[in-house]
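for ur thesis appendix - ABC transporter permease. copy paste whatever u need, i formatted it the way the template wanted (i think)
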Amino acid sequence: MIRAMLIPRRLIMLGLFAAFVLWCALALDWSWLPRYTPLALSGLWVTIWLLVVTIVLGFALAVPLGLAQAIGPWYLAAPARAFCTVIRGTPLLLQIWLLYFGLGSLFPQFPWIRESELWPYLRQAWPYAVLSLTLSYAGYEGEVMRGAFASVQKGQIEAARAFGMPRFKIFRRIWLPQAFRQALPTLGGETILQLKATPLVATITIVELYAVAARVRQDTFIIYEPLLLLALAYLVIAGLITLGFRWIEQRGPRQ
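the 3d part is after this line
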């Protein structure tokens, strides 16, 4: 690793990066940082929470969507294909607004909803943020999983059937692990894109990282410093996601 870092072009890049960091530390105004650090940590937690919850729920929904398109009958494949087409063909911001300003504005019109135990949650913004991000991730990953399921060699499945293995066991031990490995590089890239999509929920009053940077700009009229920290935070999280998926690729199921 040390020898790889001693390549001249990498040394130049590291020098330029160090100079940029030093310039930022000395020339920019960071007096606002202690005041907004608690809010920034809270926004970081909201961003990570949204990312983890939506990719877990989205992938859980993407698996049946991909399976329905790959081998399902037409009455399952057609709705799954239509769902993926609509999600991939419309902007995520539009989906968020349709759920929050559209669906969210309908619930107060029904007294039985306002009087139910769900109303304290339905009146908040985060359920619509989670739902929209989950559906978006599922729509994209459903198409990815369709191709991954179709790429698994049919001979292995036929051999498992010949040995009398039940369908669910075939799916759990042969089909899903190999399809997951096929889709893993794309899943990593889509997870990073999901991270970059989280700032859109700031438009429906969710206070995540971008919303914190926007509040600092509004309160102090300082523009570049919070945006630079925001970019650094997203860069670090994206790097950790990349390392995590690379680790899974190295230790995951192999064909």
